[in-house]
Amino acid sequence: MTTLASEEVRTDTAPRLRLVITRVARLLRQNVDVDTGLSTSLLSALATVDRSGPVTLGDLAAAERVQPPSMTRIVTQLEERGLVLRVVDDRDRRIARVQVTPKGQRLLHRSRTRKNAFLAQRLSSLTPEERRALDAALPVLERLAGEGR
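The chain above was modelled as a monomer; its predicted structure follows.
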């Protein structure tokens, strides 16, 4: 099978993409997430619980790609801050599910609002052509991230 040169991935695409994603994530953490008082791991776990609904510690650990003992420590810290609750399953008392509290939802909403505002401000500095190019690239980036839109 032959591939046209125009269809091949440039050798610098993967490293450039990795670097820009890392830099944008760092900008968001440095300029927005510091206000939450949470580490990246805590904020990520809280967002996953919010997105997934009540979830077991095992499922949360798998979703966050950490070992169960690490997730237990993370959830304990989130509980101590009043951001999540562990709720024991009525049918099987050995199972506990984690859910976000109203305080946790407010923190996530505030964080997301600030991140969106920060990015909107950065986007406003782009030309209309650059914004259109970025809009066109979003479905591809979402697919890369596994969001499948």
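The chain has one domain: 36-144.
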